[in-house]
Amino acid sequence: MAGKIFILNGPNLNLLGVRQPEIYGSETLADIEALCAARAKDLGLAIDFRQSNVEGELVGWIQEARDGAAGIILNAAAYTHTSIAILDALKAVDIPVIEVHLSNVFAREDFRHHSYVSLAATGVICGFGSAGYLLALEALAKQQ
Ligand code: DQA
Question: Under CATH, what is the fold of the domain 4-142?
Fold first, then answer.
Protein backbone atom coordinates (compact mmCIF):
# COMPACT_ATOMS: atom_id res chain seq x y z
CA MET A 1 0.00 0.00 0.00
CA ALA A 2 1.39 3.41 -0.91
CA GLY A 3 1.35 6.02 1.84
CA LYS A 4 1.29 5.84 5.58
CA ILE A 5 -1.65 5.20 7.85
CA PHE A 6 -2.05 8.20 10.14
CA ILE A 7 -3.12 7.08 13.62
CA LEU A 8 -4.33 10.23 15.35
CA ASN A 9 -5.25 10.51 19.01
CA GLY A 10 -7.06 13.36 20.67
CA PRO A 11 -7.15 15.03 24.07
CA ASN A 12 -6.24 13.27 27.30
CA LEU A 13 -5.18 10.08 25.54
CA ASN A 14 -1.61 10.97 26.58
CA LEU A 15 -2.80 10.06 30.08
CA LEU A 16 -3.78 6.48 29.21
CA GLY A 17 -2.63 4.07 31.89
CA VAL A 18 -3.33 6.50 34.72
CA ARG A 19 -6.59 8.07 33.51
CA GLN A 20 -9.72 6.18 34.64
CA PRO A 21 -8.09 2.74 34.18
CA GLU A 22 -11.42 1.10 35.06
CA ILE A 23 -12.72 2.52 31.74
CA TYR A 24 -9.64 2.84 29.55
CA GLY A 25 -7.41 0.03 30.86
CA SER A 26 -3.84 0.05 32.10
CA GLU A 27 -1.99 0.27 28.79
CA THR A 28 -0.26 3.54 27.99
CA LEU A 29 -0.47 5.29 24.64
CA ALA A 30 3.14 4.23 24.05
CA ASP A 31 2.05 0.61 24.61
CA ILE A 32 -0.71 1.05 22.02
CA GLU A 33 1.73 2.65 19.58
CA ALA A 34 4.07 -0.36 19.96
CA LEU A 35 1.18 -2.80 19.37
CA CYS A 36 0.13 -0.84 16.27
CA ALA A 37 3.70 -0.74 14.93
CA ALA A 38 4.03 -4.52 15.28
CA ARG A 39 0.66 -5.27 13.64
CA ALA A 40 1.31 -2.75 10.85
CA LYS A 41 4.63 -4.43 10.12
CA ASP A 42 2.88 -7.82 9.84
CA LEU A 43 0.32 -6.28 7.47
CA GLY A 44 2.97 -4.50 5.40
CA LEU A 45 1.70 -1.06 6.39
CA ALA A 46 3.60 2.02 7.50
CA ILE A 47 2.15 4.10 10.32
CA ASP A 48 2.54 7.60 11.71
CA PHE A 49 1.19 7.63 15.29
CA ARG A 50 0.45 10.99 16.94
CA GLN A 51 -1.44 12.53 19.87
CA SER A 52 -2.54 16.09 20.56
CA ASN A 53 -4.65 17.85 23.14
CA VAL A 54 -5.23 20.70 20.65
CA GLU A 55 -8.20 20.59 18.26
CA GLY A 56 -6.49 22.73 15.61
CA GLU A 57 -3.43 20.50 15.60
CA LEU A 58 -5.64 17.48 14.87
CA VAL A 59 -7.31 19.45 12.05
CA GLY A 60 -3.86 20.26 10.65
CA TRP A 61 -2.80 16.61 10.73
CA ILE A 62 -6.02 15.53 8.97
CA GLN A 63 -5.28 18.14 6.28
CA GLU A 64 -1.70 16.81 6.07
CA ALA A 65 -3.13 13.34 5.38
CA ARG A 66 -4.50 14.71 2.09
CA ASP A 67 -0.92 14.68 0.81
CA GLY A 68 -0.51 10.97 0.28
CA ALA A 69 -1.64 9.20 3.45
CA ALA A 70 -3.36 5.88 2.70
CA GLY A 71 -5.88 6.10 5.53
CA ILE A 72 -6.64 7.58 8.93
CA ILE A 73 -7.38 5.83 12.21
CA LEU A 74 -8.83 8.48 14.50
CA ASN A 75 -9.61 8.42 18.18
CA ALA A 76 -10.67 12.04 18.52
CA ALA A 77 -11.53 11.43 22.21
CA ALA A 78 -13.84 14.17 23.56
CA TYR A 79 -13.61 16.15 20.29
CA THR A 80 -15.56 13.26 18.73
CA HIS A 81 -18.65 14.62 20.40
CA THR A 82 -18.05 18.34 19.83
CA SER A 83 -15.88 19.14 16.83
CA ILE A 84 -17.44 20.30 13.58
CA ALA A 85 -13.94 21.49 12.61
CA ILE A 86 -12.63 17.91 12.72
CA LEU A 87 -15.69 16.68 10.78
CA ASP A 88 -15.13 19.31 8.07
CA ALA A 89 -11.43 18.39 7.82
CA LEU A 90 -12.34 14.69 7.45
CA LYS A 91 -14.87 15.51 4.74
CA ALA A 92 -12.06 17.18 2.76
CA VAL A 93 -9.99 13.97 2.81
CA ASP A 94 -10.62 11.33 0.18
CA ILE A 95 -9.14 8.30 1.99
CA PRO A 96 -10.67 5.72 4.34
CA VAL A 97 -11.22 6.93 7.91
CA ILE A 98 -11.74 4.48 10.76
CA GLU A 99 -13.12 5.93 14.00
CA VAL A 100 -11.86 4.14 17.10
CA HIS A 101 -12.76 4.39 20.78
CA LEU A 102 -11.26 2.29 23.53
CA SER A 103 -14.49 2.28 25.53
CA ASN A 104 -18.00 1.40 24.37
CA VAL A 105 -19.24 4.98 24.11
CA PHE A 106 -22.83 3.74 23.67
CA ALA A 107 -22.78 2.15 27.13
CA ARG A 108 -21.75 5.47 28.69
CA GLU A 109 -23.26 8.95 29.15
CA ASP A 110 -25.76 10.20 26.55
CA PHE A 111 -23.42 12.95 25.36
CA ARG A 112 -20.98 10.27 24.16
CA HIS A 113 -23.64 8.66 21.93
CA HIS A 114 -23.32 11.34 19.26
CA SER A 115 -20.21 11.46 17.08
CA TYR A 116 -19.40 14.12 14.50
CA VAL A 117 -16.52 11.90 13.33
CA SER A 118 -18.94 9.09 12.41
CA LEU A 119 -20.52 11.30 9.75
CA ALA A 120 -17.25 11.10 7.80
CA ALA A 121 -16.01 7.67 8.89
CA THR A 122 -15.79 4.58 6.71
CA GLY A 123 -16.35 2.50 9.84
CA VAL A 124 -16.44 2.70 13.62
CA ILE A 125 -14.87 0.39 16.22
CA CYS A 126 -15.52 0.88 19.93
CA GLY A 127 -15.40 -1.05 23.15
CA PHE A 128 -12.45 -3.35 22.48
CA GLY A 129 -9.70 -1.34 24.15
CA SER A 130 -6.37 -1.25 22.31
CA ALA A 131 -7.50 -4.18 20.13
CA GLY A 132 -9.74 -1.67 18.34
CA TYR A 133 -6.69 0.04 16.85
CA LEU A 134 -5.42 -3.33 15.56
CA LEU A 135 -8.84 -4.19 14.10
CA ALA A 136 -8.80 -0.80 12.37
CA LEU A 137 -5.39 -1.54 10.83
CA GLU A 138 -6.72 -4.89 9.58
CA ALA A 139 -9.81 -3.18 8.14
CA LEU A 140 -7.64 -0.65 6.30
CA ALA A 141 -5.37 -3.39 4.97
CA LYS A 142 -8.45 -5.09 3.48
CA GLN A 143 -9.77 -1.81 2.02
CA GLN A 144 -6.86 -1.48 -0.42
C1 DQA B 1 -12.79 7.84 24.01
C2 DQA B 1 -14.27 8.05 24.37
C3 DQA B 1 -14.59 9.53 24.49
O4 DQA B 1 -15.95 9.72 24.83
C5 DQA B 1 -13.74 10.17 25.56
O6 DQA B 1 -13.96 11.55 25.62
C7 DQA B 1 -12.29 9.86 25.43
C8 DQA B 1 -11.87 8.55 24.97
C9 DQA B 1 -12.41 6.35 24.01
O10 DQA B 1 -11.37 6.01 23.44
O11 DQA B 1 -13.13 5.52 24.60
O12 DQA B 1 -11.44 10.67 25.78
O13 DQA B 1 -12.59 8.33 22.70
Answer: Rossmann fold (3.40.50)
